[in-house]
Design brief:
7 helices
Length: 147
């Protein structure tokens, strides 16, 4: 497993979180008053979560685990392999379901719900990002020890 294989995906997440923190600092009225705040939040959340799905899929492939059939199954497989705790599993699956809603039902995302996610759920992206980074780095160092 090589961090370089998913480096571009890894780089998206901290950049997006930085931008989301700027949006998060706005109060609700200011946030909803400009469509750019809403559009930017949707885009940054969607691309962050998609990057996490892609990184998780990479980890699964590199570890030779069962191939996921759908996005949320990435989390289920990694939880079964004990890389993700049962407590975190449901939160991460909910996060992926939100991404699916943004992609497929983009015209019906409630601004108040979006603002709540921005205020309360950004840490889930950070936590899963760190988990994936730790998995990659641990397996990368093991791989380097054998070469």
């Amino acid at each position: 497993m090589r961090k370089a294989d998913v480096q571009s995906k890894l780089e998206i997440i901290p950049e997006n979180i930085e931008k989301l923190e700027l949006l998060r600092a706005k109060d609700y009225q200011e946030f909803r008053s400009d469509f750019r705040n809403i559009d930017s939040t949707l885009h940054r959340l969607q691309t962050s979560i998609q990057s996490l799905i892609d990184i998780g899929s990479y980890i699964i492939a590199q570890l030779g685990l069962k191939t996921p059939s759908f996005s949320a199954e990435v989390i289920e497989i990694l939880a079964q392999a004990e890389f993700i705790s049962p407590e975190d599993q449901e939160r991460y699956i909910t996060m992926i379901q939100f991404r699916n809603r943004v992609v497929h039902l983009y015209n019906s995302v409630d601004v108040e719900v979006l603002f709540g996610i921005l205020q309360e759920e950004i840490n889930d992206i950070r936590m899963l990002y760190r988990t994936f980074l730790e998995i990659i780095e641990a397996h990368e160092s093991r791989q380097n020890a054998y070469t």
